[in-house]
Amino acid sequence: MSNQIEFRHLKYFLAVAEDLHFRKAAERLYISQPGLSRQIKQMEDDLGIKLFERHNRKVELTEVGKYLKKEIKGNLKRLDDILNYAKLLNDGIDGNLKFGYVGSVTKIS
Amino acid sequence: MSNQIEFRHLKYFLAVAEDLHFRKAAERLYISQPGLSRQIKQMEDDLGIKLFERHNRKVELTEVGKYLKKEIKGNLKRLDDILNYAKLLNDGIDGNLKFGYVGSVTKIS
DNA sequence: TAAAAATACTCCATAGGTATTTTAT
DNA sequence: ATAAAATACCTATGGAGTATTTTTA
To answer: Which nucleotides of C are covered by protein (CB under 7 A)?
Structure first.
C-alpha cells in the first residue's frame, strides 16, 4: 500500500463519493472546501488513480472510484467492528471470551 | 471508530507487536524510539485500550493486543489488495473487467 | 550498572484556514 | 452572473528528533 495515504484520505474520499459535491462534503466533514480538494487531489496523486471526473457543475465518480467507494467503505466498517470488539474485550464486558478469542468478531453480534 | 487513529498508528503497532521491542521496531520503521513510544501511547489512549504490558526488560502483548495484531494485519492486507486492484483497473491492464466490476477482488487472483 | 522505555524540549512539515482565481454555464 | 472547484498564501498543530531521566533486573 502507498505509504502516504491515511484514514483521513479514505474518509474524505467516501464523503465526496457520497455527496458528489466538494463544498457539501467539506461542510459535513467540518473542514474547508479547499482543504478537502487538496486532500482528494493528494490521494489521487499518491495512488496514481483518478477518482473523480470534475465536469461543469457536476462531480462524478470514475469507474475505479465506484469500486473504491464500495470496497473502502466495507474495509473501514470492518476495522470499526474490530476496534469496537477490542474495546469490549478490554473492558471485560464479554467475560467468557476475554481470554478465549478464536477468530471472528461475528460471534458477539 | 476513533477519529484520531491513522494508518501510521496501526503500522507502528504491528511493528512493535511483531518485535516486542520498541527500539528494534523503531529502527525497522526508520523513526526514533521516543517517536514510536509516543505514537503507541497515543493509540492506547485514543482507543482506551492497553495494547502492551511493559515489564522489566520485556514487552508483551495484552490479550486484546493479540486480537488486534491478528485482525489489524488482516484488515491492512485487505486494504492493500483493494488499492492494488484499483490500480490495475485504473491502468486498464485488466481490460475486460474495466467496466464490469461486480464485487470481489479475488476474481483476478 | 546496563538495557530499555518514558519524558522534556525543540523544530519543522503539512493539514487546514481565508482570500482569490478559474472554469463552465 | 453564478455556482463550483482549484490555486495562492499563511498559520499552527502535532509528528518526529536529540538529550535526558526513570525503571528494574
So the answer is: 3-8, 15-19, 24-25
Kindly report, residue by residue over B88-100, the tens digit of the pLDDT: 999 985 555 444 4
A12 within a domain of the structure (yes/no): yes
Structural domain harbouring B56: 7-98
Cβ pair A52, A62 in contact under 8 A: yes
DSSP chain A: --SS--HHHHHHHHHHHHHS-HHHHHHHHTS-HHHHHHHHHHHHHHHT---EEE-SS-EEE-HHHHHHHHHHHHHHHHHHHHHHHHHHHHHTSSGGGTT---S-GGGG-
Give the residue with minimal CA–C1' separation from D7: A34
CATH of the domain at A24: 1.10.10.10
Q: Residue A37 domain-assigned?
A: yes
Q: How many domains does chain B have?
A: 1
> Is A54 domain-assigned?
yes
Query: Quick one: pLDDT at residue B95?
Result: 53
